[in-house]
Design goal:
Layout lengths: L6 E2 L2 E2 L9 E10 L14 E9 L2 E8 L12 H8 L15 H9 L4 H7 L14 E3 L3 E4 L5 E10 L8 H10 L3 H11 L6 E7 L11 E5 L1 E3 L5 E4 L3
Antiparallel strand pairs: 1-2, 3-4, 3-12, 4-5, 5-6, 6-8, 7-8, 8-9, 9-10, 11-12
Length: 235
Amino acid sequence: MCSGLWRRRGDLKAAFLAEGVETPVFVRFSTVLGSRGSADTVRDTRGFATKFYTDEGVFDLVGNNIPVFFIQDAIKFPDVIHAGKPHPDREIPQAQSAHDTFWDFVTLHTEATHHTLWNMSDRGIPRSYRMMEGFGVHTFRLVNAEGATTLVKFHWKPKLGVHSLVWEEAQITAGVDPDFHRRDLADAIEAGAFPSGNWACRPSRTPRTRCSRASICSIRRRSSPRNSHRFSRSA
C-alpha cells in the first residue's frame, strides 16, 4: 500500500488507496496561461486536475507537469499569474511564459529561478499529454494503523516515457494544428491506446518525518461509464 491510510474512529479512510482497489477517474489537461482556443504546443507549464470517484465521495487532486513552482510564498500567487498572463493592452502573447512582464517578475523574485529553468527547458513543450509527468501541488498527511504520520506528494510517471518537442517543431505544429495535444489524446483513446503510467506517493523528507523509500502504485487506464477512464491500482 501507499505510506499510510487515514483512520478515523477506528474506520479505514481513503480506502481507494488500498491494494487491488480500482477507481474511476476523470482528468482535465490544459496549459496554465493560455485562454480558451490558444495553441496547445506553446511553451508553458501544463496543469491537470484529477477527480477520483471513490466510494467515500469525490477526491480532487491538482498538479503540474513540473515538480517545482515559481513561488514559495502563497500570497505571491496572484502576482505570478498576472505577470505570466498576456499584456493587458493588447492581449498578447497567448500562453507564452517568456515575455517582458514575466521576466520582470522573475528577475525580482530569485525563488522563481528553479521553475523558470524547468519551464524554459524541453519540459515546457511536451510531445504529448500521454508522455508527460505529473506532480501534485499539495502535500498530504497520511496516518497508518499505528498512528504514525507521513507527509507525501503524489507523482504520475507515464509508461511511454517523457518526451518533448524541440522549439521549431512546437512552432510549426502550433500553426498547422493548434489543437495538437487534445487531438493526439482523443485519437489515442478512440483507438484503444489508453494513457497509462505509475502513480507514486513520494514521502516528503522533513525533520519530523523520514522514509526510506517511496511506495509506487501501478495504474492502468480503462474505459468507464463516466465518460472518463479507470485506473487499476496495485502495490
